[in-house]
Design a protein that fits this description.
Blueprint lengths: L2 E5 L3 E3 L4 E8 L7 E7 L6 E7 L4 E3 L7 E6 L4 E6 L8 E8 L14 E2 L3 E6 L1
Parallel strand pairs: 2-11
Antiparallel strand pairs: 1-3, 3-8, 4-5, 4-9, 5-6, 7-8, 9-10, 9-11
């Protein structure tokens, strides 16, 4: 069974930066699709960034140019570098994984494996 564990969430001022990490245990990268999702109070869970084992990535329009997703396959670790954070980025951030060839933009409901989440709070 795949287990995911996020870390790195914190409370920061607008314009600041954070790097989130997601450690995966019991999962082999082949056609794997991994992504970062976020959910703010009263809103649905939205996809922020996605990446495949081959390194192809995609982003939600709201974070393009500010966030960067990357992976370390040797250590089964996923990262999300977040720069120029804005108050609207405040949310619980989740790491997710599944075996999909088409990865970018896939909805949260398609993913089987999830971490417990890490809170990111951005204040003005």
């Amino acid at each position: 069974q795949v287990q995911l564990a996020e870390s790195g969430g914190d409370s920061v001022q607008a314009g600041g930066s954070l790097r989130l990490s997601c450690a995966a245990v019991g999962y082999t990268y082949r056609r794997a699709c991994m992504g970062w999702f976020r959910q703010a109070p009263g809103k649905g869970r939205e996809g922020v960034a996605y990446i495949k084992t081959d390194g192809r990535s995609s982003y939600a329009d709201s974070v393009k140019g500010r966030f960067t997703i990357s992976q370390d396959n040797a250590n089964n670790t996923l990262y999300l570098q977040m720069n120029d954070l804005k108050p609207e980025d405040t949310a619980m951030y989740y790491c997710a994984a599944d075996d999909w060839r088409v990865c970018g933009g896939r909805p949260a409901a398609d993913f089987t494996y999830w971490g417990k989440g890490t809170q990111v709070t951005v204040s003005s």
